[in-house]
Design a protein that fits this description.
The complex is a heterodimer of chains A (328) and B (537). Chain A contains 15 helices and no strands. Chain A has helices spanning 3-19, 25-30, 36-45, 52-64, 78-113, 118-132, 135-149, 174-180, 184-221, 224-231, 236-266, 268-273, 279-288, 292-320, 322-327. The longest helix of chain A has 38 residues, at 184-221. Helix content of chain B is 33%, strand content 23%. The interface between A and B is large, with 67 and 62 residues.
Chain lengths: 328, 537
């Protein structure tokens, strides 16, 4: 419930900010050869001839009816664009994050268990190299090697190869929807399309997760309960994976939330390289064209997503935090 | 526990990729009759007459609808074709004649032409569609009036298969203007069935659902992803296209497009940067078509409201200080037609565009600056449109260096695409700027009308010359065969050469790469995709 005022704030700020963008959408969308008269016609059609306050009231009224307006840039309603593109981005980001976790947590643990040895340094070099490669470059490099040279990866043309049809929409995740539909061939094709862009995202997300795992694990490993456990002769594996890791999960969850939201908003370049019809490129293209409705819709969805994300992380805290679960 | 989850996930991914490898052969068969085109542009509407329809969407008007007439197409000999502005061919109209003392065209429509739903194309459909084009406002209205068509009263249904277009006076632009993408013929019965009181022209319906009779029908449109065309086998308005199904897929990144066509997963890659195009044509594996765009130039605009540029000597000095060859090599990768180094200060041919009589000559530029009283130079911002940074940015940097040599100190002012039109073309407030204009109708006088006449949109230079005003007004409606026509346009070019409010650098090209065996890319004045002429071996 505490989220309601922040959402209202987001709606107001998004509205005001988009109106203060440079450029006039009526002029932009009237086309390059338009004359004064046709620009005025379009301004009227878009409701831009009214006062800002009036426009805001209309916008809010539409919002309560679930109408986010029409994106001039893509010609579709913002609601339908977002409902198609948000799952696309989410599917990609979640896969990327999962891959990053699968690689980063073991790396972080390895580094923490062997601090300041060659293993630690190697992990550090690997992770830093990943983070300092521009995402655009690593994407193109992966395409070059795995698609162009080796031919292992499918063509980087978005969510499905040319000759597949998108599965009937249930969740918006092609892999899951295709499986629900019983079409495993399409599900496999969709999964294949995901691999390279997800790896690109994962390479980028490795560093913060691995670093955080390492430092959290170091703290945990140096703590008294681990020393006590060691003194009691408990198996080292159990100490690392049960006692230390569980305690290290809390800061890790926080960083995961941050990395996730960052990946979701900032994977525009990955979307462009892999022709992924995601929410990031939609927002950037809309900004360039002063496409008010689309920008506002994007901000709103992202705000809702952040609220939900924070909620989920909070819930996960209580599940992971040993102090809570031991009581239970 | 965690281990198990990871292991299962990995196993799942592995299993999925195995399945995918096994199944990829299944679909190979359908690849034969299908042409796959990758494009960087996004189609945003099925209706060219709608507000906000972007340029790439004009391909829908080209491929799914017919016009009364069309331009001819000729081979360029390199797997590519070019439209021919001097030939007007029948499309929906089988014949036409000038009537009423040359002030009206009478069109005879094809008897067996039908829309996709099988209903006959009648003059009433043409009338409804043309009425729509002049009534909806915005871009279609502007384009129709470029051909002298402004009002619904100019269109008349004579009988079911005869249609009349009345002109206010004799006009050479009217017929070619009926061959541009805008005046398409819509199935008015279908459209009217889906019109509402607030939306009498069915803009909402036609935006998403084309209703035409063109060579291709819509199979699937997934905005932001792909557009899939299927051939209309009963198409009568031209030779039936060779390809049954065409997929136009959006691939925003040009490197990805290049990789796709090189690997053979795509048949045609559109809109390649000059750099890639050059490398691909040197590699000689693919067919690379590089054709100049008619009636179009990348140029420098000098604003006459800026004090030093009022002096013709300063403008000529800038023209002599331009590092043409360097710009051409760096920004265009040597692709295009050079627009500098012309031999004479008065044109010897009527070819347009043609090289202006300037070359890089810093000494001459310096002495012109001194004669104009600007021996110490001056400061001026150099504005560029960021939407076209690919050529504007390197050009600006090279210009900055070269103009510095004659004392003109420039700062580069980058303007985002959404504000460019307002700042450059409407307010006309940019002192020194890089610009491009391409005229859809391929006439010198049409170019001068938009770019050199006072107050017109693309005259971002605020250029005003009474002789140009008068010459353009007289020449624009004049027939090309008129003996005065050649004299007039040569004089216009001569004025352009000597006054140089606009310094052309090069005529740009369209770059397309095609897989071996694929042919038929047409370089149209509208620069959009015509899929009807492609063939694939």
């Amino acid at each position: 419930m505490l989220a309601v005022p922040s959402l209202i704030g987001v709606i107001v700020v998004a509205f005001v900010l988009t109106r203060s963008l440079p450029g006039d959408p009526a002029v932009y969308f009237a086309g390059i050869t338009a004359d004064e008269e046709s620009i005025a016609q379009i301004r009227e059609q878009l409701g831009l001839d009214k006062s800002i306050f009036h426009q805001f009231i209309v916008y809010c009224k539409n919002l309560t009816q679930g109408n986010l307006g029409v994106s001039l840039n893509t010609g579709q309603s913002v609601a339908s664009e977002l409902s198609a593109r948000f799952p696309a981005s989410l599917e990609l980001t979640l896969t990327g994050l999962a891959l990053a976790l699968m690689a980063a947590i073991p790396l972080g643990i390895l580094a923490a268990v062997n601090p300041n040895t060659w293993i630690d340094h190697l992990c550090r070099i690997f992770v830093t190299a990943g983070a300092s490669t521009p995402i655009f470059f690593s994407g193109l490099l992966l395409v070059f090697v795995f698609y162009y040279l080796l031919g292992w990866a499918p063509s980087p043309i978005g969510r499905l190869d040319f000759f597949y049809l998108s599965p009937p929409k249930v969740t918006g995740f092609y892999t899951i929807d295709a499986m629900i539909n019983g079409d495993f061939e399409t599900a496999a094709a969709a999964a294949k399309q995901l691999i390279l862009p997800a790896i690109t995202l994962a390479i980028f997300a490795l560093a913060p997760i691995a670093r955080m795992t390492r430092s959290a694990m170091l703290t945990a490993m140096g703590s008294e309960y681990v020393k006590a456990a060691t003194a009691n002769g408990i198996d080292r594996r159990k100490i690392i994976f049960v006692y230390a890791l569980r305690n290290a999960m809390l800061p890790l969850l926080t960083i995961m939330g941050l990395v996730f939201s960052y990946l979701l908003g900032a994977n525009v370049l990955v979307e462009k390289v892999f022709s992924w019809p995601g929410i990031g490129s939609f927002a950037v293209d809309a900004l360039v064209a002063s496409d008010f409705a689309a920008v506002q819709g994007f901000i709103l969805v992202m705000a809702v997503m952040f609220v939900v994300l924070n909620l989920v992380i909070d819930i996960l805290y209580t599940l992971v935090d040993p102090r809570v679960s031991i009581d239970g | 526990m965690k281990h198990h989850i990871f292991r299962t996930a990995w196993a799942g991914i592995l299993a999925l990729s195995v399945c995918a490898t096994l199944s990829s052969n299944v679909i190979a068969a359908s690849r034969e009759d299908t042409l796959v085109i990758v494009s960087g542009a996004s189609v945003n509407s099925m209706d060219i007459m709608r507000v906000g329809t972007n340029r790439p969407s004009y391909q829908v008007a080209v491929n799914m609808y017919d016009r009364l007439v069309s331009f001819g197409i000729r081979s360029e000999g390199n797997g590519g074709y070019r439209y021919d502005s001097t030939v007007i061919n029948p499309e929906l109209a089988t014949s036409w004649e000038l009537v009423d003392d040359g002030t009206a065209y009478l069109f005879n429509l094809r008897e067996d032409a039908t829309f996709w739903d099988g209903s006959r194309v009648t003059a009433a459909d043409v009338k409804w569609s043309f009425d729509r084009a002049v009534t909806l406002g915005g871009f279609p209205g502007v384009q129709m009036s470029a051909g002298g068509m402004n009002s619904v009263d100019q269109f008349e249904v004579v009988d079911e298969l005869t249609f009349k277009v009345k002109m206010t006076s004799s006009n050479k632009l009217t017929l070619p203007d009926l061959a541009v993408p805008v005046p398409i013929v819509i199935n008015s019965k279908v459209a009217l069935a889906n019109a509402t009181a607030e939306d009498p022209w069915a803009t909402e319906y036609l935006h998403k659902t084309p209703a035409g009779g063109g060579a291709y029908m819509l199979e699937r449109w997934e905005p932001g992803e792909q557009l899939v065309y299927t051939r209309f086998d009963n198409w009568k308005n031209g030779p039936l296209p060779a390809i049954k199904r065409v997929i136009v897929r959006e691939v925003p990144n040009s490197s990805t497009r290049r990789a796709l066509v090189e690997k053979g997963d795509a048949d045609v890659a559109l809109g390649l940067p000059n750099k890639d195009s050059k490398e691909l044509s040197e590699a000689d594996k693919l067919t690379v078509v590089s054709t100049t765009i008619d009636n179009s130039m990348h140029a420098v605009g000098l604003n006459m409201n800026f004090e030093p540029f009022k002096n013709v000597k300063v403008r000529q000095a800038v023209a002599f200080a331009m590092p043409y060859q360097k710009i051409f090599d760096t920004a265009a990768y040597g692709l295009g037609a050079k627009m500098w180094g012309g031999a004479s200060t008065s044109p010897t041919t009527t070819v347009w565009p043609q090289p202006f009589p300037y070359d890089t000559n810093i000494q001459k530029a310096k002495s012109l600056m001194a004669e104009a009283g600007y021996a110490d130079g001056f400061e001026v911002p150099l504005s560029i449109d960021l939407s076209f940074a690919e050529w504007t940015e390197p050009t600006a940097i090279l210009m900055q260096e070269s103009l510095g040599k004659i004392g003109i100190k420039t700062t580069i002012n980058k303007i985002p695409g959404a504000s460019w039109r307002t700042k450059a073309l409407v307010e006309k407030g940019l002192e020194l700027h890089l610009k491009n204009f391409g005229g859809w109708l391929n006439y010198v006088d049409y170019y001068f009308y938009w770019v050199y006449q006072k107050g017109h949109l693309f005259n971002s230079m605020n250029y005003m010359n009474p002789e140009v005003e008068q010459l353009v007004d007289v020449t624009l409606p004049m027939a090309v065969e008129d003996p005065r026509y050649e004299k007039n346009i040569k004089r216009l070019m001569e004025i352009g050469f000597n006054d140089v409010p606009l310094i052309p650098i090069w005529q740009p090209t369209l770059e397309v790469a095609m897989a071996p065996g694929v042919e038929g890319f047409v370089n149209w004045f509208h620069r959009q995709l015509d899929i009807r002429s492609f063939t694939k071996k």
